[in-house]
Write the structure tokens for this entry.
Amino acid sequence: MEKKLIDSGKVIFVMKCMLAAYLLTAGLLLLLALMLYRFGLSEKVVSVCIIIIYIAVTFLAGFIAGKKTGEKKFLWGLAMGCIYFLILTAVSLVVNKGMPQDMGNLTTVFLLCGGSGMLGGMLS
């Protein structure tokens, strides 16, 4: 018998996790926009809140992935964080029509997304 290279169930599972993560991100960013409008938050506070949203969402995606798979939890969490970052970067490249000016910021966001996803997977 032929061995499947890609298990379609796992691909669908990853897609569902990413959809849930991005829906949660959209909701939290809308809430942040409302708070910005209502309270006139500073740029620094908004930047910190956006980073907190990325960390919380990737942690949750890693936690769910680790809980669902039951094995190699930290790798599934890391995968969720990295996939989240890749999609986030791709959308940013399309919207900004090119690479960002500050590559250090990009590296920091990658480490935060991957690390928080892995932590969520480990704690599941």
Notes: Helices lie at 8-39, 43-69, 73-96, 103-123.
